[in-house]
Amino acid sequence: MPAKLFEKGKPRAKNAGRKKGTPNKFTSLKEAFINAFNSEEMGGEKGMTEVFAANSFTKREFYKLISKMLPSNVTHDGDVKITHQLSEKFFPVLNDKKK
Prior knowledge:
With 99 residues, the protein is mainly alpha-helical. The chain has a domain at 25-84. Helix content is 37%, strand content 6%. It contains three helices and two strands, in the order H-H-H-E-E. Strands 1-2 form a two-stranded antiparallel ribbon. A hairpin with a 5-residue loop joins strand 1 and strand 2 (82-84). The longest helix is centred in the N-terminal third of the chain and has 14 residues, at 25-38. The two termini are 19 Å apart.
């Protein structure tokens, strides 16, 4: 039987991911973008609207960006009921102890 990846008491591998307490870089980047968006220099929603409304190219780029932020698997059943499907995978827990 192969060794378990994570066994209690074993030291972490060198490439085992972030160490405890290390901030997530994506979260920091997202916060930086939100702060820049809300700043007076960028103009917030009004500033963004002015930039994207400037011409047809920037409008097209806006729609490309917003389409990536929307849920990808939304369905419509004809009765104006919109549902969003979310799936999770569950894996069985193997008990190696013999009773």
